[in-house]
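Posting for a labmate who doesn't have an account.
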Amino acid sequence: MDTTTQTTTLETTMRAQMGRTVQDLMAHDERLAVLLADISRPFFAEAFARYPDRTLNLGIQEQTQVSVGAGFALEGYIPVMHSIAPFLVERAFEQIKDDFCFQRLGGNFITIGASYDYSTEGMTHHASGDVQILRSLPGMRIVVPGAPGEFDRLFREAYADAAPTYYRLSDQRNSDEHPVRFGHAEIVKRGEQATVIAVGPMLERTQAAVADFDVTLLYYTTLVPFDGETLRAVCANGRVALVEPFYAGTLTPEVSAALAPLSARIEAIGIPREVPLRYGTPEQHDIANGLTPQGIRARIERFLAE
């Protein structure tokens, strides 16, 4: 890859968009404060230079990062806390629970690396359970954009809502941007046999998998609050295939609750709930987990035939 291509690739990542979006908003909203844990510092170079009193690098100590963020929130700021997904969600879970959710403070938690973008680093850098963990916290909102521009739209819409909100970013992305809205699912195609739900960066491969199937395809970027109204409106038979970029079945409770009292039949397609025993690239993990268009198609094809 030549230097020009490499620069262009970096500039179009979700992480680069995060830096552009947050720094642009900091110029117009003096309540915004950024707290880093020694991750993604170059993407906030402008903020460090222009807003040193609102941009802090606390080093590799995410628990402290979250607690300091809560202090900023108590003083009327809107904190943005950023790190790699397993570090910010799993290491600092108690601080998120007690300092933000218990005190009902607003703040934005933005991660990168999910689920196994850092696959070659092993289990310490995997984050297949982050959404499942944060779903357990009352008041926590969860957003999984599928492309950089979608993060921009969703963050601008919701960052100042005085609620703890998790934005799960990844190197994996869809090629096309969609006009997503916070709290709303998008109907991508309509069909009769079943409803397929694609979450965030799973959309493009799921579209390819079901292109010639008679199914409705829904695209979700906001997971909590879950848009049950749209699902109920299009799913009359209760048959749902759920394609998730994290542990398979994580959103099954939301789907079941949305369709009640209809008896739902759900095929959960995602990352298996088992410890990966082999190292590999993210693409190799996708193949092993059946999260390629071919693997997703095979699972949905069997589901429709049953």
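Reply:
Got it, the structure tokens are right above this. Residues 195 and 240 are 5 Å apart (CA to CA).
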